[in-house]
Amino acid sequence: MENRDGSPTFAEKMSNPAFMSVVFEGDKREVRSLYNKMKRLQERKESLVENGFFEKKRWLGNLVTRLGEDYREVYCRGTWEFLTMRGNKVSFLTETAWQPPFALLRMIQRHYPSLQFFFEAEGDDWDAYVTNDDAGRYFPSRYIVDCEPDIEYFDTIEEACSHLSAYTGMEITPTWEALEEAANDWNNCHEESDWPVGVKRIEVISNDELWE
To answer: Alpha-carbon distance 41 to 61, whole Å?
Structure first.
């Protein structure tokens, strides 16, 4: 059940999070304009638009509204944080319900034509790990290995397999299939473990493949 502004209930938001790291780069004036709009929104005494999110002032719908569009027509069920500007780049992280706000990226680009966006998005509940950064300029990681005591990101399959091999004590051929098999074998032999091994592959997709 949704709140009246389209935001998820607290229980839904906590059980279906999607995270996306974003970098916009381009003309410094446009970068600064976007940064200043977001910064002023999060520094307001009250949210620009009333909403049901915990971080009300950093609700993505406020940015949609500030750019003159209707938040009911752009997927924005989430918030941003870690807003940073360096030179001709502005970056932030979004946490949204169910899926990343790709439509928001396109909307920002319509308002700031010089800007290009790069992202890495992930979420267990929608079972997808994707990036459009094919050259790895900002998001070079392509594999994730989740084993005690932490989750680690790796640029190459060789690094990922080496890490899991050191954890399990088993030699792993540097292929995605072997990495998956090693994780499954370990979990089958350690069914009582409080920390099952998980591996993910970050898929490179084009902007034409983004969904809204």
So the answer is: 11
